[in-house]
Amino acid sequence: MTTQSAAAAVRATVYGYPRQGPNRELKKAIEGYWKGRVSAEALRDTARELRRANRSQLAEAGITEVPTGDFSYYDHVLDTTLMVGAIPARHRAAVEADALDGYFAMARGTQDVAPLEMTKWFDTNYHYLVPELGPGTVFTADSTRQVAELQEALSSGHAARPVLVGPVTYLLLAKPAPGVAADFEPLTLLDRLLPVYAQVLADLRAAGAEWVQLDEPALVQDRTPAELNAAARTYRELGALTERPKLLVASYFDRLGEALPVLAKAPVEGLALDFTGPAAANLADLAAVGGLPGKRLVAGVVDGRNIWINDHQKSLTTLATLLGLADRVDVAASCSLLHVPLDADAERDIDPQIRRWLAFARQKTTEITTLARGLARGTDTIAAELAANRADLASRAASPLTHDPAVRARTAAITDADARRSLPHPARAAAQRTRLGLPPLPTTTIGSFPQTDELRVARADLRAGRIDTAGYEERIEAEIREVLAFQEKTGVDVLVHGEPERNDMVQYFAEQLTGYLATQHGWVQSYGTRYVRPPVLAGDISRPEPMTVRWTAYAQAQTSKPVKGMLTGPVTMLAWSFVRDDQPLAETARQVGLALRDEVHDLEAAGTPVIQVDEPALRETLPLRAAGHADYLAWATESFRLTTGGVRPDTQIHTHMCYAEFGDIVQAIDDLDADVISLEAARSHMQVARELAAHGYPREAGPGVWDIHSPRVPSVDGAAALLREGLAAIGAERLWVNPDCGLKTRGWPETRASLENLVAAARRVRAEVTPTDG
Ligand code: GLN
Ligand code: ZN
Fold it and tell me: pLDDT-derived band of residue 772, with 50, 70 and 90 as boundaries?
């Protein structure tokens, strides 16, 4: 299927590999170092050994060009900040005193200095440390680490390609440093940054790099003409350097769009493009610009951020088309394999037949090399692999797990009315007022209370068989009683049971829903040394039995005040899981929405007057390009309304959101039609309250007045001042008083003091707005 010359050139490669090691050795070594139990020397040895193991695993799988510089002690954007010398003034002394400790100080802060801010890496669940730049930023090149890791790979005999965050993406991900005007645009520093990249490229060339990869995922987002010009100028200037390796500019997570012609014309030797999911549009776009004559194309045909086996036939068709569009075509994953767990073969608890549907990083490398071989030598040389792939795909498609007729019939029968409350909000609000009898500015919390050591011990004891279910449940009930007693004593109006039975707000439900799989070793880096094990939405979703009713009903039986039931919403269930790739996300969301609807129904039937459905992830899975927003928001809000639409008018539906700016999705928040929404707002001084007001948001809202991400106890004065700002935006009849988020990461002493102050602030402001007669 290919010509001989193209065949000889095909390489299999990846842009990055999981860093942690098979048993999260890196996490253990780093945390040991922080605690003083592991020396810097030993930590470096562990890191070197993990890099070596990764390289040999890749080489054994047949990856012909291994990445370097993808390793990190914490985060690759932070590594880039050090490479370009953009160390904030407050961290400079620490970095000069000790490079490693200074690095961790930038990542985590110290007693005296705040860390860099952390935020999501595009629409993944990986978090990077945000560069802080200003007009005074001076860049200086430090390529030591990049050079050392390249030499490490070269000296062990690998063809290696350093991978760097590209200069345009680096600047677009940065924010103005503290004290710098908020409208400062880091991209204006491009002219200062490019010479530093030029130096690093020269150093890598001198160290033996034939190719260097510059990652520019920011170019798959909607970009202004000025930003596209900056990209054009960047690659014109870097391309014009004489002392440089060949340049491969990589994009992933979506189509390049308007940036494609810019990069196609740039004097660089190669482009890497994503051809999975919505980025498959790159194929037609590439044909439309006349391909990449004279350039190397690295084709990301294996999905690098999901855990399902590849469809080889589909990839080979794409690759065959691409062969006609570039000088040379190589095979890769769509993005770094950082976003998937290491090895599906380690999942011994998963039915072997189902395990065959899974491809983690290790399996993906084999898929890539198989495709590269097929492309180079003809598909008959991979006939056995293709047959096995076809059989596995067929087994998945035909499995009862992926096709539950009852679930299918139910989603097919959904009507508009199912996703709508029976009465409009004003009528519901009146009924709820009568039923709940709350004061103005009612107080509540977001759901969780501190996760104490006793609770963790109880869960561990249950798992290890040291206590039985009855013993475990007694401990949970005792905790619930304590949490309720505290809220009653403090004078909170709408109580919660505290979520002591939940390890994690997604996993808890995933474990109880049919169609979800759990992994034992499927760790993925979330940030730094924090790894998560996302559950897998593998099949059709249904809820065999109530999941939360037992605890909510127990709590309600202890008190005459209303207790709020707590669920994680369908959009967040999808966002923090690995999703199916064999049906539209909208269909999966509908299934999860209906399963949660059953839970809402049972909570209501058990007498729960208030039910909160958390959707903290609504904003974060918004597609990267505006063109995809309307479709996403339509199914996302529909699935929420499927969960909540069936309740009585006098059952009050709450929702909660945090970790993001919500200004640009206020319409979608409105479309959820929840009776009450609580939002993170304390740090931004109630900005979101003003955004809701500007939109004319018609229902009740509780912008948070206690920043729970900090151990600081909010003062009564401070919380009251925020409440008055809230009042100015949202009237007294519609304003709620609550913290920014759940309290599970806080300790009891600060929780007690903070909640007492929050209630006192509510009482004070309540008195100001309620005229007393006489
Ligand atoms: N109900 C959850 C809690 O309080 C919400 C957590 C979240 O928003 N991430 O913990
Ligand atoms: Zn939250």
Answer: low
